[in-house]
Amino acid sequence: MTRIARASLALTALLTACSPALAQQRKPADPLAPAAPTEAAAPYEPELTRLAEIMGALTYLRDLCGADDGAKWRAQMARLLEAEASSQARRDRLAGAYNRGFRGFETTYHACTPNAEIAIQRYLDEGGKIARDVGARFGGG
After folding, report:
1. pLDDT tens digits along 98-132
2. CA–CA separation, 16 vs 122, rounded Å?
3. Residue 64 lies in a domain
4. Is 77 part of any domain?
5. What pTM was computed for the model?
6. What is the 3-state secondary structure (H, E, C) of the chain?
7. CB 3.0 to 4.6 Å from 52: which of 39, 98, 109, 111, for a disulfide?
8. Tens-digit pLDDT profile for residues 53-79
9. Handedness of CA 40, 44, 46, 52 (dihedral sign)
């Protein structure tokens, strides 16, 4: 089983069970370091980026609404980074997407509301669909 298939299966299981992910702390870039070679984006890069953003939003919203499973989402995001972050630039993009998802709701929601509950369900549905679709399309076997 390929790494994307394993990551997709784990994400699907987690999203189905209602649990994601990780506020990534980044080191400042070394201005004297040589530029890293550019890498070709994976064909599923937009879906992976969206999934990371969804996991960030779910980390915040589910804890806000009492699920207390933020550590599980952070661990799942760490697994995604481990499986997919083949370069520091890619790691930074995925972690940035996660952080955008988390912070986007952190700035607007300070208590669990009916709209937060609706957002949680929509993100669980969308994240599960992305994980299944990417696994089916690119997972191999």
Report:
1. 999 999 999 999 999 999 999 999 999 999 999 99
2. 12
3. yes
4. yes
5. 0.73
6. CCHHHHHHHHHHHHHHHCCCCCCCCCCCCCCCCCCCCCCCCCCCHHHHHHHHHHHHHHHHHHHHCCCCCHHHHHHHHHHHHHHHCCCHHHHHHHHHHHHHHHHHHHCCCCCCCHHHHHHHHHHHHHHHHHHHHHHHHHCCC
7. 98
8. 999 999 999 999 999 999 999 999 999
9. negative
| Number of domains into which the chain is organized | 1
In a domain, 120, yes or no: yes
Cα-to-chain-centroid distance, residue 137: 19
The answer to whether the Cα torsion of 54, 60, 65, 66 is positive or negative is positive
Cα end-to-end span (Å), the chain: 5
Which residue's entry shows tokens 């370069």?
87
**Residue 29, in any domain of the structure:** no
